[in-house]
Amino acid sequence: MLADKSSFAVTIGYADAAGRLRGAVRLDVHHRAERLKPWFVRQVHFGDSVDSVQSSPRSSSFLLD
């Protein structure tokens, strides 16, 4: 994936001290060859679960280009 410079997403679920799932974050990572640091997080999404952050996030950041 990194060798062919394909975009990808990282999904992270987080829990409270008792181990109950409290939400999830998805980071959309993109590659731009013309930059000094070509990999960057293009958009951040927040959701109530790992599944919901994939299909219908509660909120999202602005799209960075």
In the sheet with the most strands, the strands line up as 1-2-3-4
Overall structural domain count: 1
The major β-sheet equals: 4 strands, antiparallel
Number of helices: 1
Q: Count the strands?
A: 4
Describe how the helices and strands are arranged.
Layout: E1 8-15, E2 21-31, E3 39-47, H1 50-55, E4 59-60
Antiparallel strand pairs: 1-2, 2-3, 3-4
Features:
4 strands; mainly beta; elongated; 4-stranded antiparallel β-sheet; 65 residues
Q: What would you note in describing this structure?
A:
This protein has one domain (8-60). It is built from one helix and four strands. The protein starts with 7 loop residues before the first strand and ends in a 5-residue tail after the last strand. It has 65 residues and is mainly beta. The chain has a four-stranded antiparallel sheet.
A few lines on this structure:
With 65 residues, the chain is mainly β.
